[in-house]
Protein 1
Amino acid sequence: MAIVRQSKKRDAMLALLRGTDQHPSAEQVYRALKPDYPDLSLATVYRNLAQLCEQGLALRVGTVNGQERYDGHTRPHSHFICNRCGRVADLPRLSPGEGCVERLGVQYGFTAERCEFVIRGLCKGCEDF
Amino acid sequence: MAIVRQSKKRDAMLALLRGTDQHPSAEQVYRALKPDYPDLSLATVYRNLAQLCEQGLALRVGTVNGQERYDGHTRPHSHFICNRCGRVADLPRLSPGEGCVERLGVQYGFTAERCEFVIRGLCKGCEDF
DNA sequence: AGCTTAATAGGAATCATTCCTGTTAAGGAT
DNA sequence: ATCCTTAACAGGAATGATTCCTATTAAGCT
């Protein structure tokens, strides 16, 4: 990987991701920072989100309504996604058991880099139409 | 939901999904069936995949390289996705514990419709570049 | 056989994401 | 402090998966 230089905009993006539990999309990050960085480009948002993910500073949570959602909190935890409103909420860490993933890796022939446990359904507000 | 009529093409799609463990994309379904159904349209593939998912006869496994992957096997199980070659493999059911999801639903205010446990990493063939 | 409307083809439209080109600016080297 | 290399960037074009639209066909009841 090439050298990573300091970048005001990327720093702001990471700060934004770390300061919210909303799991914003690229578009939402763009709109949130545009006022402070009027010449911010959407391409820059995508490029920096990809880089933050590569560096392990952010995570792709999953696709909601065709848009990827991002999380700046990298401590192991799980997510709930509302199928109606698209809200993404944090859940405590859910694991399939100690050493389970490692055993499966041996058995099925893979090395795990990451595990995601995602619950999809309806949130409180969306249950009653 | 509207009445569901018989459809040769949709039947063929479901049979294809049920007869493979490859978790094909819409494009792959299209290419697999095009020889037998020369006038098959990609729009029809997308429409029927969506309908099969609504009916609970198929599942969206997740996005790999920007393309959604589909699974015709609906018995609870998990998936491994290779980050390099994009292969999607079945794993046995992995659950976070009996009644766990229900408890979380009560605690965090949601009703779960589905749970996915996905492991991402490198498969055997891709490990050694 | 007639009727309602789901299913369809084919092509246009949408829209998230990536690519491209020229420019700017980190930050190490001189 | 100035020079140099190249990462970061804007802005806009390109890509590509998916959805939408319109006219046509065909399930499958009556």
Note: Residues 3 and 55 of chain A are 12 Å apart (CA to CA).
Protein 2
Amino acid sequence: MDRRQQKTRQAIFEAFSILLERKNFSNITVQEIIDEANVGRSTFYAHFETKDDLLKTMCTDIFQHVFYEDLKQESSHDFSHAGHDFEKEITHILYHLQDNRKKLKGLFSCDSGEIFMKYFRGYLQETFPSYAGKLHQKAPFEYVLNMTICSFAETVRWWISGDKDYTPEQLASYFMEYIS
Amino acid sequence: MDRRQQKTRQAIFEAFSILLERKNFSNITVQEIIDEANVGRSTFYAHFETKDDLLKTMCTDIFQHVFYEDLKQESSHDFSHAGHDFEKEITHILYHLQDNRKKLKGLFSCDSGEIFMKYFRGYLQETFPSYAGKLHQKAPFEYVLNMTICSFAETVRWWISGDKDYTPEQLASYFMEYIS
DNA sequence: ACGTTATAAAACATTTTGTTCGATTTCTAT
DNA sequence: ATAGAAATCGAACAAAATGTTTTATAACGT
């Protein structure tokens, strides 16, 4: 990828991130984004179809890092094998999310939050079913799984949006206690 | 209130509700709303400042009914007295929400969902703290309360959005099992 | 150093928004 | 029933935002 493209892409991402902390996604105009990012109008549209597209791209971008590139580098995470510890797994994800705190905060805010959480839940669908399956409850599995995923996503949101100073270990233990 | 005002207000609410099931809040134009509602442009703006205002008004409108007018008519709900049963309380709320299923479904959908859930959680803040206070967990009260409220809101969303045919009693028991 | 490709800047058509005004209909109170 | 008040319609309008196109310039990779 061309250096210039990387630069503009990054500039737009950062500008967008900053603006999201200041105001709602729906009230942000393309004009404001390109002013903050200091790029031309046509350049924006060369990279993204619409503002929605920008948001979606940013979501996949972040989660791609958190769930694949970062996590995959560490060897100790084979979800499928028997002795695997769910709480440890959660803690690891929290560490990687913590590293992206700055980028994440804006995305959690009001309008964009809905889209962002949708993506987040999508990625959690890959990790959580194997754990939720072990909980034997009277409620339908479908319900328990959905709730477990939502609860984790909300836990992270509460942590990041509220600037809570808990460590990943603490937060993971609170979460585990809550869903147990 | 003038009959004409009631009629247009209702027509706009219904049109909006129908459109929300078809497409995202942010992609709905005022033009589409007034076409569907069959009212003039100036009439729309006589009732609501903006599309956002319409959404907010509709949210408060619904919850006002569900949490005050409907619930207050029944005598058996004194949250403060000692023998009060949380699960019964939940069940009651679910009954009233069920009556508004049609109106609610659109509001839960993507873009509007974030605003709607915010209002929903706001109303739950009045009911839930007294219950969440009784759960003694290691996690901060603030966290447990937030999670309990979110979990209930998500439970309702899952129920309504997914057209699940569980009775309020069933759903309440699933929820109670989940948070216990 | 060369051809290629991204960007900037400005101009533009289009869409959506929100306002205004006069004519018309519908309400309420008497 | 009727007169006065109030809400609606519809059309026209200004303002703002979107998305596209063009050309010249600058930065890139080989």
Note: Residues 75-83 of chain A have pLDDT under 50 and may be disordered.
Protein 3
Amino acid sequence: MIEEKFKLENQLCFRLYTASRLLTQAYHPLLGEHGLTYPQYLVLLVLWEKDAQPVNDIAKRLLLETNTVTPLLKRMEAEGIVTRSKGKEDARQMIVRLTKKGHDLQKKLTDVPDTVGNAVICENVTPETVPGLFGMLDDIIKQLKQ
Amino acid sequence: MIEEKFKLENQLCFRLYTASRLLTQAYHPLLGEHGLTYPQYLVLLVLWEKDAQPVNDIAKRLLLETNTVTPLLKRMEAEGIVTRSKGKEDARQMIVRLTKKGHDLQKKLTDVPDTVGNAVICENVTPETVPGLFGMLDDIIKQLKQ
DNA sequence: GTTGTTTATATCGTTCACGATGCAAATGTA
DNA sequence: TACATTTGCATCGTGAACGATATAAACAAC
């Protein structure tokens, strides 16, 4: 008999991993239409809030390493969504800026948040319960960031 | 001014994605000690519950595609953790079985669930609130599976 | 100023994820 | 039995993630 602690049903991580994957998949057709991946969409969210950021600030905001973000940004540069240029004050930095195409994508993706948001609404996940879910996930993230 | 719906702080998916990544990272040192990755650990959880399963059953249980699971299992086979052999009733199936090494890993990993479990305990995430979190995540998963 | 350290980014290798496609075994139908 | 379809798995290509390492610029100490 398998111990309770090893049952898949008792694993928080498996739930987070699965929910994250499935929700990312829900974004896929909406973003793919515009040649974007989900992590690239996250970079856009960061740059729409504040344009012209160094790689490090983007990575820190997304809690990713630069070795993940750098290739991702180079692909976005190749797609003409962002530009990357050396910082003037600090020549080590690479400043990432939205192109017109990158900026304009916001209008084209205007329906994405609500479409995905509506896709998860169900019995126990409603506008009333989501804040509580956010709180717990934020707590987990804060805790694991140390 | 950026719209509310595009703010990173209002995204469920980003929270799930980040929490999943960070929690998986918490497993990394514990599993890496035994030459395992997190997805490989998930396969072990499935096989410890029930040995000798075809690739498809493992993939379905983890909500993954076989094209993800097949290479993963081949790596585990190369590590001597599982064997893969053609099914006798249905020659299309590949039956995956734990080796002694794979079976014995359970004892060696006995502390992993509690160690990781304790790492997430914090103010809003306690033995009392976790069932509610499980319920919401299960709801999201169920909803997105269609 | 020379040297040592830190910081910002990039490169490399490995392992997922996953869409698209291929192939052989099983199944269904005429 | 013949042929089409479905099923189970594998292969291929691309894009993340991430540990390890490299490189150049900035900074610090002497």
Note: The first strand of chain B starts at residue 53 and ends at 54.
Protein 4
Amino acid sequence: MYQEILTKCILFSDLSKEELSYALQFFSATEKFYEKGDFLNKVTAPLKSFGLVLSGTIQVYMDDIDGNQMIMANVGEGDTFGESLCFLQREAPVYICSLTDSAILWMNTDRIKNPDAHFTYRDIVLANRFTAMLANRTLAMNDRIQILSKLSIRDKLITFFSQYSNRYGSQEFEIPFDRNDMATYLGVNRSALSRELAHMREEGIIDFHKNQFQIKNIFANQ
Amino acid sequence: MYQEILTKCILFSDLSKEELSYALQFFSATEKFYEKGDFLNKVTAPLKSFGLVLSGTIQVYMDDIDGNQMIMANVGEGDTFGESLCFLQREAPVYICSLTDSAILWMNTDRIKNPDAHFTYRDIVLANRFTAMLANRTLAMNDRIQILSKLSIRDKLITFFSQYSNRYGSQEFEIPFDRNDMATYLGVNRSALSRELAHMREEGIIDFHKNQFQIKNIFANQ
DNA sequence: TTATAATGGTTGCATTTGCAACGAATATAT
DNA sequence: ATATATTCGTTGCAAATGCAACCATTATAA
């Protein structure tokens, strides 16, 4: 049922039915269901598993030094969370909360970290897929850091748009955020973001409608 | 000669002489020397290796959409670069340039990605060390994203300081940046950073001398 | 020593941006 | 259908911050 979602994850993409079944077993995959508002972990214990969101949305956050909550990630369908902490068996004061009703596929890396004598070629391939997942994660985080490092909203937007444009090979693309999440991703205030988007549209640099954006002549001004 | 530097890298820490030798061979390690200003890669070709800086400092950057150069990383002694791109064999328009005279240990992940029939237990262990390196990298990038996501310089500094304080388990610590690099890391203007640091000192929240910082009562105000 | 470069602090100013409040439009639930 | 919640844009205002220019101090080189 969740087949399509699984195949979106690099761990399980392009596997035969038999291989998929083996992979799920290799990562000790078990499905669990949560209701809106449920907590997925105990803060006191280190993460023994990482998760793949099969349906719904979950949020990872930690308490800030001044008591506020720092949102670390909103994780939607097909995306994973906690891989690094799980692999490193690192303790971290993170809370994982289900924003909607959700289904999570919990997995662990025990078979990678504690290989037995029968570690086979396909085990190595699966371990490499896990590594590739982390590598992809660092590249995605790097993209975000590029954006966040820009000093002005305008520059952040230009970087953000050009990344999407490159990724899709097109001047026109849809982004997976609403304005609120977009502002969070860019690290700016929502209304200031709206204002800057309006300015850029006035200047003829971009056009947009809801999540659909079009780059017109981003190089022209500035 | 570079023994101490190697052992700082998770790939090579706590290895016997014999194991170290095997690890170097496993990653096809070869040393190369560069002069200040030398380029370490050809932009047109994908990265076939990742690097460990044995001495000196190198910089990774790419051309921005508007022709400016985006600095992606300053890599100092003992730190690595290009692991993700190398492992994924991903092409990316990055420039790698030596800021000083430098010595680089080039390595690759061929033995991980193309395991032969004799893939042994210690090969698995080394592959896992590589994975752990990536996992650590994502955690470090996450810390930086936490900081960059804050909207004010004050909040960025508070987050930055509390990370260091947690890491060293002390209210007093030394940071590895000069003011310029610190401003870049925090994603703010250097003089604005100096100004905010001065304010925080006036308010008795922190004290500092050069790279030596002391948190006094960061919780008090705000 | 002297000269030069690098580093860090200070400040005036213009601009940007966060913030709050509000309203319109749309979506969702009852 | 009606009510309610969500999303998005707009705007006035105050505060934060980028920017540039300058100076002091320290480090480095000649």
Note: The mean pLDDT of chain A is 92.
